[in-house]
Amino acid sequence: MKILHTADWHLGKRLDRFSRLEEQVQVMDEIVQIADAQKVDLIIVAGDLFDNFNPSVEAVELFYKTLKRLSLNGKRPVVAISGNHDSPNLIDAPDPLARECGIILIGHPKAKVTPFELENFKISNSAEGLIELHLKEISFPVRIMHTPYANEIRLKEYFGENKEEELNKILAESWKKLAEEFCDENGVNILCAHLYMNKRGAELLEEPEGEKPIKIGAADLIYSDIIPDQIQYTALGHLHSFQNIGTKEKPVVYSSSPLCYSFSEAGQTKYINIIEAEPGKEVSYERIALKTGKPLVRKVFDSVEKTVSWLLENPDMLIELTMESDTFLKAEDRKRIYQSHQGIIHLIPKVKNQDFSESQPHEINLNQDIQTLFKDYFRSKNAGQEANEELMNLFNEILNSQS
Protein backbone atom coordinates (compact mmCIF):
# COMPACT_ATOMS: atom_id res chain seq x y z
CA MET A 1 0.00 0.00 0.00
CA LYS A 2 0.97 3.65 -0.46
CA ILE A 3 0.76 6.17 2.37
CA LEU A 4 1.22 9.94 2.12
CA HIS A 5 2.75 11.55 5.22
CA THR A 6 2.52 15.31 5.72
CA ALA A 7 2.53 17.57 8.78
CA ASP A 8 2.76 21.10 10.19
CA TRP A 9 0.34 22.81 7.82
CA HIS A 10 -0.10 25.78 10.22
CA LEU A 11 -3.14 26.99 8.30
CA GLY A 12 -3.79 30.66 9.03
CA LYS A 13 -0.09 31.35 9.67
CA ARG A 14 1.18 34.89 9.23
CA LEU A 15 4.74 36.10 8.81
CA ASP A 16 4.72 39.34 10.76
CA ARG A 17 1.95 41.35 9.05
CA PHE A 18 1.91 39.17 5.91
CA SER A 19 -0.80 36.56 5.46
CA ARG A 20 0.33 33.25 3.95
CA LEU A 21 -3.22 32.03 3.22
CA GLU A 22 -2.99 32.45 -0.55
CA GLU A 23 0.22 30.39 -0.60
CA GLN A 24 -1.42 27.80 1.67
CA VAL A 25 -4.36 27.44 -0.71
CA GLN A 26 -1.88 26.75 -3.50
CA VAL A 27 0.28 24.27 -1.56
CA MET A 28 -2.78 22.37 -0.28
CA ASP A 29 -3.86 22.01 -3.90
CA GLU A 30 -0.37 20.74 -4.77
CA ILE A 31 -0.52 18.11 -2.00
CA VAL A 32 -3.93 16.93 -3.24
CA GLN A 33 -2.60 16.66 -6.79
CA ILE A 34 0.41 14.61 -5.62
CA ALA A 35 -1.84 12.29 -3.60
CA ASP A 36 -4.02 11.66 -6.65
CA ALA A 37 -1.11 11.30 -9.09
CA GLN A 38 0.64 8.83 -6.78
CA LYS A 39 -2.64 6.94 -6.21
CA VAL A 40 -1.99 6.76 -2.47
CA ASP A 41 -4.24 4.58 -0.32
CA LEU A 42 -4.03 6.53 2.94
CA ILE A 43 -3.18 10.06 4.10
CA ILE A 44 -1.58 10.86 7.48
CA VAL A 45 -1.34 14.46 8.76
CA ALA A 46 0.88 14.52 11.87
CA GLY A 47 -0.32 17.60 13.71
CA ASP A 48 -0.13 21.41 13.77
CA LEU A 49 -3.05 21.52 11.40
CA PHE A 50 -3.70 25.16 12.32
CA ASP A 51 -1.38 27.89 13.55
CA ASN A 52 -3.37 28.75 16.68
CA PHE A 53 -6.20 27.58 18.90
CA ASN A 54 -8.68 29.99 17.30
CA PRO A 55 -8.04 29.83 13.55
CA SER A 56 -9.76 32.17 11.12
CA VAL A 57 -12.88 31.15 9.21
CA GLU A 58 -10.77 31.07 6.03
CA ALA A 59 -8.19 28.73 7.61
CA VAL A 60 -10.88 26.35 8.90
CA GLU A 61 -12.62 26.32 5.52
CA LEU A 62 -9.34 25.53 3.75
CA PHE A 63 -8.66 22.70 6.22
CA TYR A 64 -12.01 20.98 5.72
CA LYS A 65 -12.00 21.42 1.94
CA THR A 66 -8.46 20.02 1.69
CA LEU A 67 -9.26 16.96 3.82
CA LYS A 68 -12.42 16.31 1.83
CA ARG A 69 -10.45 16.45 -1.44
CA LEU A 70 -7.72 14.20 0.00
CA SER A 71 -10.38 11.69 1.09
CA LEU A 72 -11.88 11.60 -2.43
CA ASN A 73 -15.24 12.31 -0.81
CA GLY A 74 -15.00 9.33 1.51
CA LYS A 75 -13.25 6.80 -0.72
CA ARG A 76 -9.77 7.20 0.82
CA PRO A 77 -9.05 7.37 4.59
CA VAL A 78 -7.41 10.48 5.99
CA VAL A 79 -6.05 10.44 9.55
CA ALA A 80 -5.16 13.80 11.15
CA ILE A 81 -3.97 14.34 14.73
CA SER A 82 -3.61 17.56 16.71
CA GLY A 83 -0.28 19.28 17.40
CA ASN A 84 0.87 21.81 19.97
CA HIS A 85 -0.66 24.68 17.95
CA ASP A 86 -4.08 23.01 17.78
CA SER A 87 -7.07 23.00 20.10
CA PRO A 88 -7.87 19.29 20.63
CA ASN A 89 -11.56 20.06 21.13
CA LEU A 90 -11.68 22.02 17.87
CA ILE A 91 -10.06 19.11 16.04
CA ASP A 92 -12.49 16.60 17.58
CA ALA A 93 -15.64 18.72 17.09
CA PRO A 94 -16.58 17.78 13.50
CA ASP A 95 -15.84 14.07 13.99
CA PRO A 96 -19.35 12.68 13.28
CA LEU A 97 -19.58 14.60 10.00
CA ALA A 98 -15.91 14.04 9.14
CA ARG A 99 -16.30 10.27 9.42
CA GLU A 100 -18.96 10.35 6.71
CA CYS A 101 -16.26 11.82 4.45
CA GLY A 102 -13.65 9.23 5.41
CA ILE A 103 -11.77 11.65 7.68
CA ILE A 104 -10.54 10.50 11.10
CA LEU A 105 -9.73 13.44 13.40
CA ILE A 106 -7.91 12.72 16.68
CA GLY A 107 -7.46 15.57 19.15
CA HIS A 108 -6.52 13.93 22.45
CA PRO A 109 -3.87 11.38 23.48
CA LYS A 110 -5.24 7.92 24.26
CA ALA A 111 -8.42 8.73 22.30
CA LYS A 112 -10.56 5.75 21.31
CA VAL A 113 -12.00 6.30 17.85
CA THR A 114 -15.54 5.03 17.31
CA PRO A 115 -15.47 2.31 14.62
CA PHE A 116 -17.36 2.99 11.41
CA GLU A 117 -17.65 1.56 7.91
CA LEU A 118 -17.85 3.22 4.51
CA GLU A 119 -18.03 1.71 1.06
CA ASN A 120 -14.25 1.57 0.50
CA PHE A 121 -12.85 1.06 4.01
CA LYS A 122 -13.71 0.54 7.65
CA ILE A 123 -12.21 0.84 11.11
CA SER A 124 -12.17 -2.82 12.04
CA ASN A 125 -10.66 -2.38 15.50
CA SER A 126 -10.10 0.49 17.91
CA ALA A 127 -8.38 0.93 21.25
CA GLU A 128 -7.07 3.86 23.25
CA GLY A 129 -4.27 5.21 21.07
CA LEU A 130 -4.78 2.85 18.10
CA ILE A 131 -7.01 2.23 15.10
CA GLU A 132 -6.98 -0.66 12.63
CA LEU A 133 -8.16 0.05 9.09
CA HIS A 134 -9.26 -2.40 6.42
CA LEU A 135 -9.27 -1.01 2.88
CA LYS A 136 -11.46 -2.66 0.25
CA GLU A 137 -8.73 -3.02 -2.38
CA ILE A 138 -6.00 -4.18 0.05
CA SER A 139 -5.86 -7.67 1.50
CA PHE A 140 -4.18 -6.76 4.80
CA PRO A 141 -5.02 -4.26 7.58
CA VAL A 142 -3.06 -1.17 8.55
CA ARG A 143 -2.69 -0.34 12.26
CA ILE A 144 -2.02 3.26 13.23
CA MET A 145 -0.85 4.01 16.76
CA HIS A 146 -1.65 7.69 17.32
CA THR A 147 -0.20 10.11 19.88
CA PRO A 148 -1.34 13.72 19.42
CA TYR A 149 0.48 16.45 21.32
CA ALA A 150 -0.39 16.79 24.99
CA ASN A 151 0.28 19.92 27.05
CA GLU A 152 1.43 19.92 30.68
CA ILE A 153 -2.09 19.44 32.08
CA ARG A 154 -3.03 16.69 29.65
CA LEU A 155 0.31 14.94 30.12
CA LYS A 156 -0.34 14.72 33.85
CA GLU A 157 -3.92 13.66 33.22
CA TYR A 158 -2.93 10.88 30.82
CA PHE A 159 0.56 9.94 31.98
CA GLY A 160 0.76 10.80 35.69
CA GLU A 161 2.23 13.55 37.89
CA ASN A 162 5.92 12.75 37.42
CA LYS A 163 5.92 13.31 33.69
CA GLU A 164 9.45 14.74 33.67
CA GLU A 165 10.77 11.38 34.84
CA GLU A 166 8.07 9.12 33.50
CA LEU A 167 7.07 10.34 30.04
CA ASN A 168 9.50 8.15 28.07
CA LYS A 169 8.74 5.22 30.33
CA ILE A 170 4.95 5.62 30.16
CA LEU A 171 4.93 6.15 26.40
CA ALA A 172 7.24 3.17 25.90
CA GLU A 173 4.97 0.95 28.00
CA SER A 174 1.79 2.21 26.34
CA TRP A 175 3.17 1.82 22.81
CA LYS A 176 4.63 -1.61 23.61
CA LYS A 177 1.32 -2.86 25.00
CA LEU A 178 -0.58 -1.70 21.92
CA ALA A 179 2.03 -3.11 19.56
CA GLU A 180 2.05 -6.51 21.25
CA GLU A 181 -1.73 -6.74 21.25
CA PHE A 182 -2.51 -5.46 17.75
CA CYS A 183 0.62 -5.14 15.58
CA ASP A 184 1.53 -8.57 14.24
CA GLU A 185 3.22 -9.25 10.89
CA ASN A 186 -0.09 -9.83 9.11
CA GLY A 187 -0.63 -6.09 8.71
CA VAL A 188 1.19 -2.78 8.21
CA ASN A 189 2.10 -1.06 11.48
CA ILE A 190 2.51 2.73 11.68
CA LEU A 191 3.08 5.20 14.53
CA CYS A 192 1.82 8.77 14.08
CA ALA A 193 2.85 11.31 16.71
CA HIS A 194 3.34 15.04 17.28
CA LEU A 195 6.24 15.08 19.71
CA TYR A 196 9.75 16.43 20.12
CA MET A 197 11.60 13.20 19.35
CA ASN A 198 15.35 12.75 19.01
CA LYS A 199 17.82 9.92 18.66
CA ARG A 200 19.41 9.09 22.01
CA GLY A 201 22.93 10.51 22.25
CA ALA A 202 22.54 12.62 19.09
CA GLU A 203 22.83 16.40 18.91
CA LEU A 204 19.54 18.05 19.86
CA LEU A 205 17.46 19.10 16.86
CA GLU A 206 16.47 22.77 16.67
CA GLU A 207 12.81 23.60 17.09
CA PRO A 208 11.40 26.01 14.49
CA GLU A 209 12.13 29.71 15.08
CA GLY A 210 9.09 31.58 16.34
CA GLU A 211 7.14 28.39 17.05
CA LYS A 212 5.63 27.34 20.36
CA PRO A 213 8.36 25.11 21.80
CA ILE A 214 7.60 21.61 23.01
CA LYS A 215 10.99 20.88 24.53
CA ILE A 216 11.49 22.59 27.90
CA GLY A 217 14.92 21.41 29.02
CA ALA A 218 14.83 17.62 28.74
CA ALA A 219 11.37 17.20 30.29
CA ASP A 220 9.50 16.66 27.03
CA LEU A 221 12.27 15.00 25.03
CA ILE A 222 11.18 11.63 23.65
CA TYR A 223 13.78 9.16 22.45
CA SER A 224 13.26 7.23 19.22
CA ASP A 225 14.54 3.99 20.75
CA ILE A 226 11.28 3.57 22.71
CA ILE A 227 9.35 2.96 19.48
CA PRO A 228 8.25 -0.71 19.43
CA ASP A 229 10.02 -3.08 17.06
CA GLN A 230 6.73 -3.91 15.35
CA ILE A 231 6.42 -0.35 14.00
CA GLN A 232 7.59 -0.17 10.38
CA TYR A 233 7.36 3.59 9.94
CA THR A 234 6.92 6.53 12.33
CA ALA A 235 5.20 9.65 10.97
CA LEU A 236 6.22 12.67 13.05
CA GLY A 237 5.17 16.29 13.15
CA HIS A 238 6.64 19.38 14.86
CA LEU A 239 10.05 20.05 13.30
CA HIS A 240 9.78 21.87 9.97
CA SER A 241 12.65 20.34 7.99
CA PHE A 242 12.60 16.87 6.44
CA GLN A 243 14.72 14.40 8.39
CA ASN A 244 14.82 10.72 9.25
CA ILE A 245 15.99 10.30 12.84
CA GLY A 246 15.49 6.55 12.68
CA THR A 247 17.21 4.05 10.42
CA LYS A 248 16.83 3.00 6.81
CA GLU A 249 15.10 -0.15 8.00
CA LYS A 250 12.81 1.60 10.52
CA PRO A 251 12.35 5.24 9.38
CA VAL A 252 11.30 7.85 11.96
CA VAL A 253 10.51 10.82 9.78
CA TYR A 254 9.66 14.49 10.18
CA SER A 255 8.03 15.17 6.81
CA SER A 256 8.55 18.98 7.07
CA SER A 257 6.09 21.86 6.87
CA PRO A 258 4.63 22.59 3.41
CA LEU A 259 5.95 26.19 3.38
CA CYS A 260 8.89 28.05 4.92
CA TYR A 261 7.32 29.69 7.96
CA SER A 262 10.28 31.56 9.51
CA PHE A 263 13.58 32.99 8.28
CA SER A 264 15.44 30.21 10.06
CA GLU A 265 13.89 28.01 7.33
CA ALA A 266 15.09 30.29 4.51
CA GLY A 267 16.36 28.22 1.59
CA GLN A 268 14.85 24.94 2.80
CA THR A 269 13.09 22.65 0.35
CA LYS A 270 9.78 21.38 1.70
CA TYR A 271 8.44 17.87 1.12
CA ILE A 272 5.69 15.36 1.54
CA ASN A 273 6.67 11.71 1.99
CA ILE A 274 5.27 8.76 0.05
CA ILE A 275 5.69 5.43 1.86
CA GLU A 276 5.29 2.01 0.28
CA ALA A 277 4.54 -0.64 2.88
CA GLU A 278 3.47 -4.25 3.16
CA PRO A 279 3.26 -6.64 6.12
CA GLY A 280 6.44 -8.05 7.60
CA LYS A 281 8.82 -6.13 5.33
CA GLU A 282 10.88 -2.97 5.46
CA VAL A 283 9.09 0.07 4.06
CA SER A 284 10.52 2.23 1.30
CA TYR A 285 9.81 5.91 0.92
CA GLU A 286 10.25 8.73 -1.53
CA ARG A 287 10.16 12.35 -0.50
CA ILE A 288 8.57 14.64 -3.07
CA ALA A 289 9.57 18.30 -3.12
CA LEU A 290 6.82 20.89 -2.93
CA LYS A 291 7.21 23.72 -5.40
CA THR A 292 4.51 26.12 -4.24
CA GLY A 293 5.07 29.14 -2.01
CA LYS A 294 7.24 32.22 -1.94
CA PRO A 295 10.88 31.67 -1.00
CA LEU A 296 12.13 33.29 2.21
CA VAL A 297 15.45 35.08 1.74
CA ARG A 298 17.93 36.76 4.08
CA LYS A 299 20.05 39.43 2.34
CA VAL A 300 22.72 41.88 3.51
CA PHE A 301 23.60 45.05 1.55
CA ASP A 302 25.89 48.01 2.18
CA SER A 303 24.36 50.49 -0.28
CA VAL A 304 20.85 51.66 -1.03
CA GLU A 305 21.50 51.54 -4.79
CA LYS A 306 22.52 47.86 -4.70
CA THR A 307 19.56 47.07 -2.44
CA VAL A 308 16.95 48.69 -4.65
CA SER A 309 18.44 47.15 -7.80
CA TRP A 310 18.34 43.63 -6.33
CA LEU A 311 14.84 44.09 -4.92
CA LEU A 312 13.47 45.18 -8.29
CA GLU A 313 15.04 42.13 -9.95
CA ASN A 314 13.56 39.70 -7.36
CA PRO A 315 9.94 40.68 -6.75
CA ASP A 316 8.32 37.36 -5.81
CA MET A 317 9.83 36.50 -2.42
CA LEU A 318 9.66 37.43 1.27
CA ILE A 319 12.78 39.12 2.57
CA GLU A 320 14.65 39.83 5.78
CA LEU A 321 16.90 42.71 4.77
CA THR A 322 19.96 43.89 6.71
CA MET A 323 21.36 47.29 5.71
CA GLU A 324 24.96 47.95 6.70
CA SER A 325 25.90 51.64 6.64
CA ASP A 326 28.19 54.17 8.25
CA THR A 327 25.36 56.46 9.35
CA PHE A 328 21.76 56.30 10.39
CA LEU A 329 19.47 55.14 7.55
CA LYS A 330 17.57 58.19 6.29
CA ALA A 331 13.79 58.24 6.01
CA GLU A 332 13.90 58.82 2.26
CA ASP A 333 16.19 55.80 1.86
CA ARG A 334 13.87 53.60 3.92
CA LYS A 335 10.91 54.82 1.87
CA ARG A 336 12.71 54.11 -1.39
CA ILE A 337 13.63 50.59 -0.26
CA TYR A 338 10.09 49.75 0.85
CA GLN A 339 8.58 51.19 -2.34
CA SER A 340 10.78 48.94 -4.48
CA HIS A 341 9.41 45.66 -3.04
CA GLN A 342 6.14 44.42 -1.52
CA GLY A 343 7.68 41.51 0.40
CA ILE A 344 10.07 43.12 2.88
CA ILE A 345 9.21 41.56 6.23
CA HIS A 346 12.07 43.05 8.27
CA LEU A 347 14.47 45.90 7.53
CA ILE A 348 17.35 45.73 9.99
CA PRO A 349 19.80 48.68 10.08
CA LYS A 350 23.37 47.79 11.05
CA VAL A 351 26.03 50.44 11.57
CA LYS A 352 29.57 49.65 10.45
CA ASN A 353 31.60 51.02 13.35
CA GLN A 354 34.53 48.90 14.39
CA ASP A 355 35.90 51.33 16.96
CA PHE A 356 32.92 51.34 19.31
CA SER A 357 32.69 48.79 22.08
CA GLU A 358 29.86 48.51 24.58
CA SER A 359 32.42 47.49 27.16
CA GLN A 360 34.26 50.81 26.78
CA PRO A 361 33.97 52.83 29.98
CA HIS A 362 32.32 56.17 29.33
CA GLU A 363 31.06 58.94 31.56
CA ILE A 364 28.05 61.10 30.73
CA ASN A 365 28.09 64.73 31.78
CA LEU A 366 24.59 65.44 33.07
CA ASN A 367 25.21 69.19 32.97
CA GLN A 368 25.08 69.13 29.14
CA ASP A 369 22.04 70.47 27.27
CA ILE A 370 19.25 68.02 26.46
CA GLN A 371 20.17 67.69 22.77
CA THR A 372 23.76 66.71 23.58
CA LEU A 373 22.55 64.25 26.23
CA PHE A 374 20.23 62.68 23.68
CA LYS A 375 23.11 62.34 21.18
CA ASP A 376 25.22 60.60 23.84
CA TYR A 377 22.34 58.30 24.76
CA PHE A 378 21.63 57.44 21.12
CA ARG A 379 25.31 56.70 20.49
CA SER A 380 25.50 54.41 23.55
CA LYS A 381 22.42 52.42 22.48
CA ASN A 382 23.30 52.09 18.81
CA ALA A 383 26.88 50.80 18.75
CA GLY A 384 28.45 54.23 18.33
CA GLN A 385 26.08 55.40 15.62
CA GLU A 386 25.59 59.17 15.50
CA ALA A 387 22.13 60.69 15.50
CA ASN A 388 21.81 62.49 12.17
CA GLU A 389 20.20 65.85 11.44
CA GLU A 390 16.85 64.34 10.54
CA LEU A 391 16.60 62.46 13.82
CA MET A 392 17.65 65.54 15.82
CA ASN A 393 14.98 67.62 14.07
CA LEU A 394 12.39 65.06 15.08
CA PHE A 395 13.69 65.07 18.66
CA ASN A 396 13.46 68.87 18.76
CA GLU A 397 9.90 68.74 17.48
CA ILE A 398 8.98 66.42 20.35
CA LEU A 399 10.70 68.75 22.83
CA ASN A 400 8.88 71.80 21.47
CA SER A 401 5.51 70.02 21.62
CA GLN A 402 6.04 69.44 25.34
CA SER A 403 6.86 73.05 26.17
Task: Describe the structure in your own words.
Helices cover 29% and strands 24% of the residues. The chain has 403 residues and is α/β, with parallel strands linked by helices. Helix 8 (331-339) links the parallel strand 19 and strand 20. The longest helix has 20 residues, at 163-182. It starts with a strand and ends with a helix. The mean pLDDT is 87.
Brief overview:
With 403 residues, the protein is of the alpha/beta class.
Helix content: 25-40%
- Biggest sheet character: 7 strands, mixed
> What Rg, in angstroms, do the CA atoms define?
26 Å
Give, in order, the helices and strands. EEEHEHEHHEEEEHHEEEEEEEEEHEHEHH
Structural class, judged by helices and strands?
A: alpha/beta
Sheet with the most strands: spatial strand order: 7-8-9-10-13-15-14
Question: What is the number of helical segments per DSSP (H or I, 4+ residues)?
Answer: 10
How far apart are the first and last residues' alpha carbons, in Å?
78 Å
How confident overall, as mean pLDDT? 87
General form: elongated
Strand elements, count: 20
